[in-house]
């Protein structure tokens, strides 16, 4: 019966208040717990820790305590229970094989005396928690009542009040308390315990001295005048039976303590050191405080934001300001509760949207707490500034801090984007849904143009084997009728994009960069963000190549590959975009039910350029008579909203929004809401509004559950109906397919990216997403996952775990060649508890032949197809020579066939 009767699993720091060298460390281990009982062990330990934390005076000393739990497996369950004991009791006689060899009746006389091999316990504590074990405790897995402490290790069983035993035993072990009870075996007629006759005992909670001027707890006496002793036992042959003449917490000198009926005194009538279930008496509590004082961290309240800057808050739509929050932050190290309160201000027109006080308390596992008091600023007109101060006081300590606040409003940050569009010959092919690729491109580009924000610039470049600037970067202007929009739409729909020629994506990218550089060189209008959207359906086969031009790009670069990954320069475009804050999206074959995919990709990239967040993008089929109610969450962090309806003929659909308070926002609302735009154009209708939607009803038209309402035009929208979002089973198979895309402009930012270990089948595809709110990582308040569609159309979900605060990651193996479309989603709650949702689409691709040598530039790239065509097409060998070669056995027709078979597999021509 020894350590051979079990093994050690490991150690967990279950309460962490700082370095072991500076804190009071409790090390707990279990005996008589089998492997299958480790969960029970953890529960038993937690029950003890919970009791300890809620027991005075540990309550206010908790921040000075660490707890380590060592998990030990014993061969058998329970503890030794000798059949006989000197006190006349009988036991089961069991002798289970346990790691610490715990046993009842360990002194041969007292059944409840539960002991173990202390050396084993101490050595294990030293090994697992080196040089840091102020209290070593063994919890013994038996329901029989018992415990003990001998100055080295406290032992206690799992009897119903075992945790109480542990508190009592810890009093002996750590603080050197005596037992305050006035008997030893405490059976009637016990002898040898009538009158204490020894010297003054060393323990702090028992004494033979009742002189109030010299006794050891004189500083804690309740009264300066009451006679001492407080009680005297009239019959020293037995325990005193008189009631307490004073209050329960009275400190005096009560006769009977330290196992004797008379002559030794205890501070209070009762105490946990006398009988379980009582509080520690005030003398014991003071001794615990004195002992733990050295382990408490120094209290500190540190203001980490001496000034608050609402820098460059953008103007809102239609003169309605954008409201932004910032927090005054204190780093708090305390053992108590500290309340921070705004006692003056804020001056300067700033708000306190979430109240004027906040309390923080010591937590179980974080040495430092953060207290945040929120301020708000609402933007006005560009160029205006505000400043003010706010005074914060700590209720408990009286400390005050004055925080400066500054703010300014700027015009909305403007973006310039160039389209870099492939019009090589293959763009005339079917995209998969019956429309040509160039047709799909024209539709998607047109939606992008119509969705752009007034004031943003657009340039257009086309490329085949060379590149041409079709339109320099131009302000698109107001919705629908802006001059830039009309000009851009003309280029997109006109013959300039008719398919022709080879593919030099690099030439297009260089021309796109030049267009952006030219716009910035003009100085006005100034663009805060520059971006490029590259669209191609092919593999680059003509210099310059992306690998040669990529390093010169400074704009954020996004790309869309129209078609299957093996037919597109997937690797080169991935490198180009990921090196420039963007990403590549690949459409795959566009089946009819994915007809809107390219449009959605364009809108998502628009969101990426304008810093909008994607809330939701559902797809549905609207049937006559049905009203679709599509729910979506907005939070107080969101200050702007775009709701796009993508459908062939938007004028056939009644389209409205329902705010959380039930108010309906329809196209007609533009006459009363200056912060609302409604746009309807080919293939697209949308609402664009700043939040709150109705400034006079801020609480009901900003955070909360919104709905998009859709209905085939002709009957009034029924707001109260609760039809399913995706109506099905309608007898009328005819319906209008639609997609809804919801973007928000927000202080809650979600960003997802995918990377892959290679482009070969079997590659590991990793998805990483981050969430932040007012630039602070969203810690432990969100869930994130990725819905992945495999190349064969089947789906699975990748769980993304929070690896760091606000950072989520997951991965999967791309074992089948083809396209993996990932819908990365997040839900959670904001600081103030409002729900939010976000999503983003990503693609990854693996394909056969991916590891062929990359095309790295003109000098290393030789176009054998063009070379051989040139030779065959009569420019090198004339007809007479062909005939002579044939006669001598060289058939050039075979060469021509080989050439076609090889060269026609290369796309982009
Ligand atoms: Zn005791
Ligand atoms: Zn006491």
Automatic annotation (TrEMBL):
Molecular functions (GO terms): metallopeptidase activity
Name used for this protein in its record: von Willebrand factor type A domain-containing protein
PANTHER family: CALCIUM-ACTIVATED CHLORIDE CHANNEL REGULATOR, ZINC FINGER (C3HC4-TYPE RING FINGER) FAMILY PROTEIN
InterPro entries documented for this protein: CLCR, MetalloPept_cat_dom_sf, Peptidase_M64_IgA, VWF_A, vWFA_dom_sf
Superkingdom of source: Bacteria
Domain VWFA span(s) in chain numbering: 416-606
Organism of provenance: Paraburkholderia steynii
């Amino acid at each position: 019966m020894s350590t051979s009767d079990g093994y050690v699993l490991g150690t967990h720091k279950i309460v962490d208040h700082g370095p072991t060298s500076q804190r009071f460390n409790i090390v707990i281990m279990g005996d008589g717990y089998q492997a299958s009982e480790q969960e029970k062990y953890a529960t038993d330990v937690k029950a003890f820790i919970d009791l300890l934390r809620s027991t005075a005076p540990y309550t206010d000393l908790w921040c000075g305590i660490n707890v380590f739990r060592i998990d030990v497996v014993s061969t058998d369950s329970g503890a030794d229970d000798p059949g006989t004991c000197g006190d006349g009791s009988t036991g089961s006689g069991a002798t289970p094989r346990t790691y610490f060899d715990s046993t009842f009746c360990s002194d041969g006389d007292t059944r409840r005396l539960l002991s173990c091999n202390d050396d084993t316990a101490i050595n294990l504590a030293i090994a697992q928690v080196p040089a840091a074990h102020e209290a070593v405790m063994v919890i013994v897995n038996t329901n029989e009542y018992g415990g003990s402490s001998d100055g080295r290790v406290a032992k206690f069983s799992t009897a119903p009040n075992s945790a109480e035993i542990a508190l009592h035993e810890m009093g002996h072990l750590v603080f050197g308390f005596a037992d305050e009870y006035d008997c030893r075996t405490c059976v009637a007629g016990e002898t040898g315990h009538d009158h204490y006759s020894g010297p003054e005992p060393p323990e702090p909670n028992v004494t033979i001295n009742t002189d109030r001027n010299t006794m050891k707890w004189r500083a804690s006496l309740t009264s300066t005048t009451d006679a001492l002793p407080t009680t005297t036992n009239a019959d020293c042959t037995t325990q005193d039976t008189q009631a307490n003449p004073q209050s329960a917490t009275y400190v005096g000198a009560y006769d009977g303590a330290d196992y004797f009926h008379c002559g030794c005194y205890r501070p209070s009538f009762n105490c946990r050191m006398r009988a379980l279930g009582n509080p520690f008496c005030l003398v014991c509590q003071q001794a615990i405080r004195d002992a733990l004082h050295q382990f408490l961290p120094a209290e500190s309240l540190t203001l980490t934001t001496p000034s608050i800057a609402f820098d460059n808050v953008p103007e809102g739509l239609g003169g309605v300001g954008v409201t932004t929050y910032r927090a005054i932050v204190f780093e708090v190290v305390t053992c108590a509760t500290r309340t921070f309160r705004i006692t003056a201000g804020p001056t300067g027109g700033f708000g306190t949207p979430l109240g004027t006080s906040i309390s923080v308390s010591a937590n179980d596992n974080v040495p430092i707490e953060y207290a945040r008091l929120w301020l708000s600023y609402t933007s006005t007109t560009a160029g205006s500034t505000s400043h003010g101060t706010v005074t914060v006081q700590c209720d408990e300590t009286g400390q005050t801090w004055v925080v400066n606040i500054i703010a300014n409003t700027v015009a909305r940050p403007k973006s310039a984007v160039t389209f870099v569009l492939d019009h090589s010959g293959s763009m005339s092919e079917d995209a998969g849904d019956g429309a040509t690729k160039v047709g799909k491109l024209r539709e998607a580009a047109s939606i992008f143009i119509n969705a752009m924000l007034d004031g943003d610039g657009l340039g257009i470049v086309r490329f085949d084997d060379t590149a041409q600037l079709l339109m320099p970067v131009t302000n698109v202007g107001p919705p629908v009728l802006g001059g830039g929009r009309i000009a851009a739409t003309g280029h997109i729909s006109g013959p300039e994009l008719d398919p022709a020629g080879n593919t030099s994506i690099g030439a297009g990218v260089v021309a796109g960069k030049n267009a952006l550089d030219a716009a910035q060189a003009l100085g006005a209008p100034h663009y805060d963000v520059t971006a490029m959207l590259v669209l191609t359906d092919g593999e680059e086969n003509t210099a310059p190549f992306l690998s040669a031009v990529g390093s010169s790009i400074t704009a954020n670069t996004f790309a869309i590959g129209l078609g299957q990954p093996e037919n597109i320069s997937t690797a080169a475009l991935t490198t180009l975009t990921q090196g420039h804050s963007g990403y590549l999206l690949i459409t795959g074959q566009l089946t009819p039910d994915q007809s809107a995919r390219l449009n959605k990709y364009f809108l998502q990239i628009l969101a990426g350029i304008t810093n909008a967040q994607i809330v939701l993008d559902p797809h549905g089929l609207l049937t006559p008579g049905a009203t679709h109610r599509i729910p979506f969450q907005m939070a107080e962090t969101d200050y702007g909203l775009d709701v796009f309806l993508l459908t062939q003929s938007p004028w056939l659909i009644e389209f409205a929004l329902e705010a959380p308070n039930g108010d309906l926002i329809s196209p007609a609302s533009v006459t009363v809401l200056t912060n609302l735009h409604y746009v309807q154009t080919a293939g697209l209708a949308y609402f664009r509004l700043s939040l709150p939607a109705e400034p006079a009803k801020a609480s009901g038209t900003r955070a909360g559950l919104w709905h998009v309402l859709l209905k085939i035009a002709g009957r009034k929208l029924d707001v109260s109906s609760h039809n399913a979002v995706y109506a099905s089973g309608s007898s009328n198979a005819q319906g209008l397919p639609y997609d809804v895309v919801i973007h928000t402009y927000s202080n809650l930012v979600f960003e997802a990216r995918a990377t892959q270990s290679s482009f070969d089948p079997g590659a590991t595809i990793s998805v990483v997403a981050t969430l932040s709110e007012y630039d602070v990582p969203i810690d432990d308040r969100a869930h994130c996952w990725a819905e992945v569609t495999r190349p064969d159309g089947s789906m699975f979900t990748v769980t993304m775990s929070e690896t760091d605060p606000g950072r989520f990651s997951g991965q999967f193996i791309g074992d089948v060649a083809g396209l993996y479309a990932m819908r990365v989603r997040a839900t959670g709650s904001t600081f103030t508890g409002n729900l939010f949702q976000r999503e983003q689409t990503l693609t990854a691709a693996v394909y056969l032949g991916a590891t062929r040598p990359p095309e790295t530039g003109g000098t290393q790239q030789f176009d054998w197809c063009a070379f051989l065509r040139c030779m065959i097409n009569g420019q090198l060998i004339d007809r007479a020579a062909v005939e002579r070669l044939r006669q001598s056995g060289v058939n050039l027709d075979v060469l021509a066939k080989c050439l076609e078979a090889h060269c026609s597999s290369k796309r982009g021509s």
